[in-house]
Design brief:
single chain, 147 residues, alpha+beta, tt1808, chain A, 6-stranded mixed β-sheet, 3-stranded antiparallel β-sheet, 2 helices, globular, HSDR_N, Type I restriction enzyme HsdR N-terminal domain-containing protein
């Protein structure tokens, strides 16, 4: 896998029927290792180890219904009251972070109403705060600290 612009970590990878799988700490099982999953696992590690997000309050591949269609958010971190705090949309490293990616996470956040959004392809990361009252978006220099 490609080296990312995220901290390295000691991940567990194994082969099943000649295909790579990575151990997901949140789901506590091996999942198919795709380029997007590589980014997702690095983001999860970053949130857990560098920003002290509680493991029990992060969900990977969570479902949501949007316009009567089932979708999946890559990563959602919840606050201590159980409300969405941060949504992360992960893309494979070779995928450019275009307006359509930002539109995708904005649609998901229409349901979740999280105050923070992150879009990452593992190389480039965009973090922003959302004021749902004024609809203002403020880009941040770093991932939001967990409160």
């Amino acid at each position: 896998m490609v080296t990312l612009n995220l901290p390295e970590f000691d991940c567990k990878i194994k082969q099943v029927d000649g295909k790579p799988y990575i151990f997901d700490l949140l789901r506590r099982k091996y999942v198919r290792l795709s380029p997007e999953e590589w980014v997702r696992q690095h983001i999860i590690n970053l949130l857990l180890t560098h920003y002290a997000y509680p493991k029990a309050l992060i969900r990977a591949e969570g479902g949501l219904t949007l316009n009567m269609t089932q979708k999946r958010t890559d990563v959602v971190a919840f606050d201590r009251q159980g409300q969405p705090f941060l949504i992360v949309e992960c893309k494979a490293p070779h995928i450019q972070l275009t307006q359509s990616v930002f539109d995708q996470i904005a649609r998901y956040n229409h349901v979740h109403r999280a105050p923070y959004l992150v879009v990452s392809n593992g190389i480039t990361h965009y973090c922003c705060g959302i004021n749902h009252t004024t609809s203002e978006v403020q880009f941040l220099d770093d991932f939001p600290a967990y409160v």
